[in-house]
Structure formats: structure tokens, C-alpha cells
Amino acid sequence: MTNKQQATELAVPTPDAFQSGALVTDKNRRIIYANAYFSDELNWDLKTLIGRSSDDLFTYSSKIFCESYLMPLLLHEKKCEEMQLALLDGNGKRVPIIINAKMDDHGNIYWSFFNASKRDQLYEELIEVRKKLEAQAKVLQSLSSTDELTGLMNRREVNLRAPEVINQAKRYVHTITLLMIDIDYFKKINDSYGHLEGDRVLKELGLRLKTFGRQTDLIARFGGEEFIMLLPDTDATDAKLFAQRLHKLMLEIEVNNTPVTISIGITMSDGSQDLEDLTKQADIALYKAKNNGRNRTEFYQET
Amino acid sequence: MEKVVLIKVIKNMQNAHDVIKKNNVNVLGSCAKTLLLAHGFGCDQNMWRFMLPAITPHYKVVLFDYVGSGKSDIAHYDQARYCSLEGYAQDILDICEALELHDVIFVGHSVSSMIGLIASIQKPMLFSQLVMICPSPCFLNFKPDYIGGFDKADLEELIDLMDKNYIGWANYLAPLVMGSNNSEKLVGELSGSFCSTDPLVAKTFARATFFSDYRHLLKEAKHPVLLFQSSEDALASTDIGDYMTEQLPQAKLQLVEAQEHCLHMTHSDIINQGLRDYLD
To answer: What is the C-alpha R_g of chain A?
Structure first.
């Protein structure tokens, strides 16, 4: 071979020279061209490959991905880049690949395939790590938003979530109710029967509030022996009934054979006040309930 | 009394406005008959663009994106709601209510055919007809009685494949960011905005679509159904088309000589013609 001949051959390399798969399909998805990569690296017999549907090259999962993403994208934007799918080689073995493809005006598709075995391995590991991290994040999130003793939301979480409930009330023109609940003579329970007994009462109350509330209610331990409930779409009549039932529910929690009682302060809003305003108002009502003899509910009234 | 009525009107307007934004609802044409076009899993309402020039002069065409797809407002995404097709059906019902639509001719591609069926059974009054393009009531195999086309392992692999593709889209770790309520940041883009989807959203939709079995609903259909089926569709074999036609109380099957699953994109002329012939 002369130098000149060599130079000419190099000047016009054929697609067979590339270390990647090149494939052309017609508008009916029939393979009309495949380069030597398919025979050399993917064990396909080129003769049997020509005329087959490109669907035959993909695993089942890749077929779904193709129909849901790749094909619509090609039809819409005429090209697609860097999609990872799994190809079947001539022996039916899975080969992870990266696909770039382009569609011309006649619906012919020009496919390029790149082996992605090592990248696939890395991705597998990444997926595993993410799964672990996700599980950890979930635990941390729940720890940071939950009151450990009662399992209710903590103050931090209710501060985060209340604005949405309040905004919704404003948007959809309905009334929300905020209840501030305080256990009567809690200090006495602690002092006379010990902190463990106090904790038990808190837990029992927490459990009852949780089962008593609706899914959309925000129920939290606000601090010490104080609980709050933010009830969306609840008017004064509903709130009154709700409080009555809560008082009744307390008969189930006893210390030294005597039912524990609670005082409740209630305020209503159309969503124009923030949580801080509302808790202040409910607090005023709560103190009224305490001053009026405890084991009762008072509504906040504007002066 | 007047105040109550006024509040109700305001509420309705607010609701309509919210839904239009939430589902990126677009209304084209102004004719009497309403076509509601529902995109399938993977992409968004742009899928319908090939059909639009021929239908907008004759119908009022309502387009939308399911929450989590396309240009919908992802802030409204609720994983619990969208983990089954009923959640997506509620999007359809929300849109019908917000736009005060009735006698809707529902056109769904792929999984949206079943979503439309669910919606139409829940609120039959809103709909008049259903059109299904390349539908399947169940992608899973229940051998030997029913061949949906895929084994559970294939579908698990699909979820895996989706994961692997999202890794390259730079938002792979985004779902791990704690306390982030700014979920718009999570939107990844496959290319342009056509297939833009959050990885979690897309996987949830994939699970709801490919792991579900709604065969039992076919018999409950309350409206006449027109089915378009590809002669060679990688996702739904002709057996599935036959099965559906047999199970649906009132169905007409039109077989289209094609290798595609997106007939509304590749064979929009045939779909448009079939639609007109059937509806007129």
C-alpha cells in the first residue's frame, strides 16, 4: 500500500471504524443500516439485524422509556441526547448504553449508542447511597418536627405549617379556629405524683387529641403542659361543640382516681391574622378560663 | 343573603383561577362541542400540537398538564394523591368544574384513557364520550389469563432506569434537601420543557401507571368509547385492544397500521379523521 493510498483511506473513514454503535431506522422503525460495532461488540449478525424493528434491540423497560420519552422527544424536537437505556446484544445479554438520536424530515432516525457499563455501575451505587440517605433524612425530619414525649408536632413544626392553613382560610373565605389547651393544676400533679405521672398525663392527652382531630387539623404540643390545635374550616358553633367534646374526653384520664381537667381558650379568624396574633388571643381567652374557675372554655372577645 | 351569593361567586372565580394555574389549562377554539385532551405518562400537553390545527376550528379544545407534568404548578403536588390514577382523575374533574364544562368529549393518550374512564365513572354527567389512543387497562402480565406485556421485574427495571436517567439531570440529590418547600427548584428538564419532570413526580406517575390494574373498571363505563389501536405498539398489543373492546359496554375499535405508541403525534391525520367520522 502506498502512502498516497493510506492517506485517501484515512480521509474517508467509514462508520465501521468508530468504537460506538451507529444505526439507521426508517419511518416504520425498520433497521436499514447498522455499523460493524453491532457485529464486533454486540454479537449481532448484521444480516439478520437489517429489516428488523428497532424495538427488538431494547429490553422491556427500555421499550417503555422509549415510547414515553425518547420517541415523543424525537417527534417534538427532532433530536435527543444522553438517554441511558439497556440494549440486548445478539446473545440476549443486557448492555447499558447511552443513546443520542436524531430524526430527519422523512422520519428516519440516526442512532448513536455508547457503552455505559461502568457509568451504570456507578449509578447503581449512587442509587443505593441515596436510598440510605433518604431513610436517614426521613428519620431526622420526623425527629426535628415531632415532640418526643407525645408524638405530636412540636412548636417549630406548627410555626412552619400554620401559615399555609391561615392562607387557605383567606383564599377560600372560611373561618379557622385556634384552641389553646392547658392542663389544670399540672404543677400539682407533678409535685404530688412525680414527673413520670405528669409525663403519662401529657402522653395520654396527646394521644387523645391526635385520634380526636381530623387529618387536616394541626395539633401540637406548644410547650410544657400547653397544647394547640388549629382547625381549618371551623366556625364558632363547631368550635364550641369541639371544646365540649374535649372536656368530656378528659374524663378518661385520671390521676389518683380523679379525672384531670383542662382549660381551653379559643379564637377564630378569617385568615387575616398570623399565628402569633392568634396564639396571643387564644392565650387571653385561656387565662379568662383559668380565672373563671378552670375546666371550662372561653372565647376571645375583642375589646 | 346577597353576601352569601357574592362569597360563593368569589370562591368559584378563585377556584377556576387556581385550577387554570395549577394544571396550566389552555383553551383553544370556541365551538360548542368540547374536546378535553389529556396527555399520557412522560410528556405534556405539547404532545397534542400535531392534531390541533385540524380540530380547533371545529371544537372548543381544552389542554392541560397533570400536576407535576409540563408547566403545571408543582407546588400543588401531593404524593399521596398522585400515587394512584384516581388522583389524576381528580385533576380532570377539577378542570371540568372550574371551567364549568359539560358533555365533554374526553380524549386520552395511553394511561390517560384509564384516567378519563375513572373520572367519567365518578361524574358521568360531565362527559358525553371517551376517545382512547393506545390505551391499556393493565400493563402487567397475569399469565395465562391476561398478557399486559410486562412482568413486574420489567417495571421495577423501568423505575431503576428512570432513576439512572435523572442522575444525569443534576437534580438527583434534590429530593434529599430537607425542609425545602421550594419544590419548583426540583424540576429537572430532559430537554427543553417538553418532558420536564421532577424525578419523584415522574416515578410516582410511572408506578401509578404501570403497576395498576383497572381491568375491572372497563365493564363500568358509562359512555360510548372510541379506541385507536396501533397494529404494532410496544406498550399495548392488539390483544389488549380486543380485550378492551370486548369488556367495554359500548366500544368501537379503530386499528391503525403503525408501529407507534404516540399515534396522535405520528398519525395525527388518521386520528383527526377517525375522530371527526365518529363524532359527527
So the answer is: 35
CA distance linking residue B19 with residue B10, whole number of Å: 14
Given an 8 Å threshold on Cβ–Cβ distance, is A86 in contact with B157? yes
φ/ψ of A219, rounded to 5, equals -125, 125
Complete edge-to-edge strand list for the sheet that includes strand B225-230: B26-28, B60-63, B34-38, B104-109, B127-133, B225-230, B251-256
- In this prediction the pTM is 0.74
Q: Compute φ and ψ for B39, nearest 5 degrees.
A: -70, 160
Instruction: Measure the CA–CA gap between B233 and B208, rounded to whole angstroms.
Output: 20
ipTM of the prediction: 0.86
Which amino acid is residue A14, in one-letter code?
T
Which residue, A108, A103, A96, is CA-closest to A21?
A96
Any alpha helices (H) in A81-185, and if so which ranges?
Answer: 117-145, 155-171
Distances (CA, A) of A71 to A97, B122, B188: 17, 33, 19
Q: Are A72 and A66 in contact (CB under 8 A)?
A: no
Q: How big is the A-B interface in CB pairs under 8 Å?
A: 122
CB contact under 8 A, A141 and B178: yes
| Alpha-carbon distance values, A249 to A149, A163, A283, B14 (Å) | 20, 29, 22, 39
Q: Strand, helix or coil at B254?
A: strand
Residues of B catalogued as catalytic: 110, 233, 261
Confidence of residue A264 (pLDDT cuts 50, 70, 90): very high
pLDDT band of residue B169 (cuts 50, 70, 90) is low
Instruction: Give catalytic residues of A, as residue numbers.
Output: 225
DSSP annotation of B234: S
